[in-house]
Write a structure and sequence with these properties.
Layout (H helix, E strand, L loop, with lengths): L1 H30 L3 E5 L5 E2 L1 H6 L9 E5 L6 E2 L12 E5 L18 E5 L23 E5 L16 E6 L7 E2 L8 E6 L8 E2 L12 E3 L18 E3 L20 E3 L3 H8 L1 H4 L1 H30 L12 E5 L40 E5 L11 E3 L15 H27 L6 H29 L4 H9 L2 H33 L10 H20 L22 H31 L11 H36 L7 H11 L2 H12 L2 H14 L3 H11 L9 H5 L5 H14 L6
Parallel strand pairs: 1-3, 2-4, 3-5, 5-6, 6-7, 7-8, 8-10, 9-11, 10-12, 12-13, 13-14, 14-17
Antiparallel strand pairs: 15-16
Helix pairs in contact: 3-8, 6-7, 6-14, 6-15, 7-9, 7-10, 7-14, 9-10, 9-11, 9-12, 11-12, 12-13, 12-14, 15-16
Family: Belongs to the G-protein coupled receptor 1 family.
GO molecular function: G protein-coupled peptide receptor activity; protein-hormone receptor activity
Organism: Diatraea saccharalis (sugarcane borer)
């Protein structure tokens, strides 16, 4: 009996405590502004019954919040009218909620937020403030971020709102007149990666749009209709943006946060970005000055008049109204305090409110204080050392010089390839290596030719063509040719040096010479390495599009730094190898011909070849050393020159070896002249030139020869070449 008594008392106390806690909670909720929260709920339909069942009184609810409702798929929007005090509507994490019917009039509603849910289209909010009781018909925030929205129905957003966010959805296109007669201060499409098309009239009819965010989308251009009043434009992380409107189209723009450096050049040089509109602007300014001058003369005449004249102060102002806002419907007229910043409820989520004191922006010019100044737009990213607001070549002398280098490099290396490949009778290792070297230098000439053509076509306004060039196929090809030719040239010169080192240092050991088969295998490896290094930027390691000269000079991450360091390291190893080999060559030839058993003529011939090759490699080293030095300093994080001055090294000095190589190792040698004359003799034309060459190279007659007999019996050029080659071999003369 006693045990039952204690159990009964304990149960009563527990029930009392539970009832008291529940009543206290309800009182707290009702007294604190009636916040109705349904968290981790299993409701499938949101209606008045479900809210009432949760323990809330509909007439007292001001803020309705639903978080994590995995089964919610329908909202009875008519029941929202049973909450006359409703100010905010918030739903998060409702994946099955795909559509919301058109909302009824809700006079006090200020925020409508449905995020990270399953919406596939924008709900119709155009009737939210149709009620006659609504004295301030506007919404502070509409946030539909993180849904699956693919389309914007017509007139769905014909509203008055401070901030509309459609971020992180699946919108592919903004149709024409999607925001007609809507009064929206800030509009954001950030993170719609599939958004690739904005209709020319996508923003036509929108009123008071001050901020627009199209970051992380796939658009290629911006329409200008409806953006006349835009003050802040954000198109960051949008690499597809090709064209930026003129500053004269966005006449109120003060801030622009873009993706490409060269787009900011359009705001810095409006006269070059859009010359026609700049001329119209100058005509308007000139007309304004003339009107101000006439007004001043009129005022002076009035002062001289005997009768006092009362002047209206407003007569001194020239006002130009924006006709684009005159189409505002009366049903969307609003008061000056409509976008009052005091009504902001969530400063962390939404930007500060934009002042809107008038629906029609005006331009007033006071003739007494008229100051004509250039428009300044705060634009990012600002043109930097890699992307300055200049042409591809930059300087006029560099523009002329690059054409001279192109002509010399292309013509010289083509001539070498033509002659060496035509001499099929002698397939020696030096000839094979020289063909590879000539081809690599020819690629350098083609790279410079592409840069020179682009510079000529975009002279003065390159930033208007920068996107099509830097992010097009042309720049990728040019960059590939540049890196490929540089790597193959250095590799081939290294092999040429090693071959000469073997041939000269171990002249008496014929078995130690590099065979043609071995040379072919070595050059295949060189080609594969060069193609790999040139192809990595195409695969995402570094980038050819970082600058107008299409070189992988920008280091954004560790992978880019490793790639650029590998380029410099391989070149440095190659040049060290070349220098060491030539030191050994000169040391081995230092004794004249004693080391060759008295074959002084052979030693002298080898020394002449070594001297020529030293000149060849030394020229390349002089061209490469400055580029390597400034490249290493830039890679170390302390660049000493910018791209404007670096172009002199990269476009002028560095490619000079492509011009010097064909003349040093081929065109200026006797062997090349013999091969060239043989090629002419095979054609059967210009026989007079062939005969003149044979006479010039025929040894003078001696006492043991019959001059009269020899004059009429000249050997054919081919037989003559064979005899000269045999004599050269006997004398130890090595040719290229």
């Amino acid at each position: 009996m006693k045990m039952y008594f204690w159990k009964h008392n304990i149960l009563a106390v527990c029930i009392f405590l539970l009832v008291r806690r529940s009543s206290c909670t309800k009182v707290g909720v009702e007294g604190s502004g009636s916040i109705a929260e349904l968290i981790n709920t299993n409701i499938t339909v949101l209606n008045a019954k479900a809210i009432h069942k949760a323990g809330y009184h509909l007439h007292d609810i001001q803020h309705l919040t639903i978080i994590n409702a995995p089964r919610l798929h329908h909202i009875v929007v008519e029941d929202l009218t049973k909450m006359p005090k409703l100010k905010s509507f918030y739903i998060s994490q409702a994946p099955m909620l795909e559509r919301i019917a058109a909302l009824p009039p809700l006079p006090l509603l200020r925020t409508f937020i449905v995020i990270t849910s399953g919406l596939v289209e924008v709900p119709n909010l155009s009737h939210v403030h149709d009620s006659k009781r609504d004295k301030t018909p506007y919404l502070q925030a509409i946030d539909l971020e993180g849904n699956h929205i693919k389309r914007i129905p017509p007139h769905a957003l014909r509203i008055s709102a401070d901030h509309v966010s459609l971020n992180l959805n699946l919108i592919e296109e903004v149709p024409p007149f999607a925001f007609k007669n809507a009064v929206i201060s800030k509009l954001s499409f950030k993170g719609n990666t599939k958004l690739s098309r904005l209709d020319e009239n996508a923003f036509a009819g929108i009123l008071l749009l001050r901020q627009l965010d199209l970051s992380s989308t796939a658009i290629s251009s911006l329409p200008i209709t409806g953006l006349e009043n835009l003050q802040v434009l954000k198109v960051e992380k949008t690499s597809t943006l090709k064209y930026i409107p003129s500053i004269y189209d966005l006449r109120l723009l003060t801030e622009a946060h873009l993706t490409h450096h060269f787009h900011c050049c359009a705001f810095a040089f409006p006269e070059r970005h859009d010359p026609q509109k700049h001329k119209i602007y100058e005509v308007q300014i000139q007309h304004l000055k003339q009107n101000c001058g006439k007004q001043k003369k009129s005022e002076m005449r009035k002062k001289r008049s005997a009768k006092p004249v009362t002047i209206n102060p407003r007569e001194n102002n020239w006002e130009y109204e924006d006709n684009s806002t005159s189409s505002m419907s009366e049903e969307y007229s609003f008061k000056e305090d409509m976008f009052d910043s005091d009504s902001s409820e969530d400063d962390d989520q939404f930007h500060e409110l934009v002042e809107a004191n008038s629906t029609q922006p005006q331009f007033s010019y006071n003739c007494e204080s008229l100051i004509i100044s250039e428009r300044r737009v705060q634009c990012t990213p600002v043109p930097d050392a890699l992307n300055p607001c200049e042409d591809v070549m930059g300087w006029s002398w560099l523009r002329v010089s690059v054409w001279l280098v192109v002509v010399a490099a292309v013509c010289g290396n083509l001539a070498v390839l033509l002659v060496l490949l035509a001499a099929a009778s002698e397939r020696t290792v030096p000839r094979l290596l020289m063909c590879h070297l000539a081809f690599s230098d020819l690629c350098t000439g083609l790279y410079l030719f592409m840069l020179a053509v682009v510079d000529l076509r975009s002279y003065g306004v390159f930033f208007n063509y920068a996107f099509d060039w830097q992010y097009g196929v042309g720049c990728q090809i040019a960059g590939f040719l540049s890196v490929f030719s540089g790597q193959l040239s250095v590799f081939t010169l290294s092999v040429v040096t090693l071959e000469r080192w073997f041939a000269i240092t171990y002249a008496i050991y014929l078995e130690r010479r590099i065979s043609p088969a071995a040379a072919n295998k070595i050059m295949v490896a060189g080609w594969l390495f060069s193609v790999l290094m040139a192809g990595l930027p195409l695969a995402g390691v570094s980038d050819y599009s970082s600058t107008s000269i299409c070189l992988p000079v920008e280091s954004k991450n560790v992978g880019d730094g490793v790639y650029q360091g590998t380029l410099f390291l391989t070149n440095a190893v190659a040049w060290v190898t070349i220098v060491v080999c030539y030191v050994q060559i000169y040391r081995s030839l230092g004794g004249g011909g004693e080391k060759y058993g008295g074959r002084g003529a052979a030693a002298a011939a080898e020394r002449r070849i070594a001297n020529k090759m030293a000149l060849l490699v030394g020229t390349n080293l002089l061209c490469w050393a400055p580029v390597a030095f400034f490249g290493v300093t830039a890679l170390a994080g302390a660049p000493l020159v910018d791209v404007s001055h670096g172009k002199v090294l990269l476009v002028f000095f560095y490619p000079l070896n492509a011009v010097a190589n064909p003349f040093l190792y081929a065109i200026l040698t006797k062997q090349y002249r013999r091969d060239f004359m043989m090629l002419i003799a095979r054609t059967g034309k210009f026989n007079w030139l062939v005969e003149k060459y044979k006479l010039a190279t025929t040894p003078p007659p001696t006492a043991h020869t019959n001059p009269s007999a020899n004059q009429g019996n000249l050997l054919p050029l081919v037989e003559y070449q064979r005899s000269r080659s045999q004599i050269g071999k006997e004398n130890g003369d090595a040719s290229f």
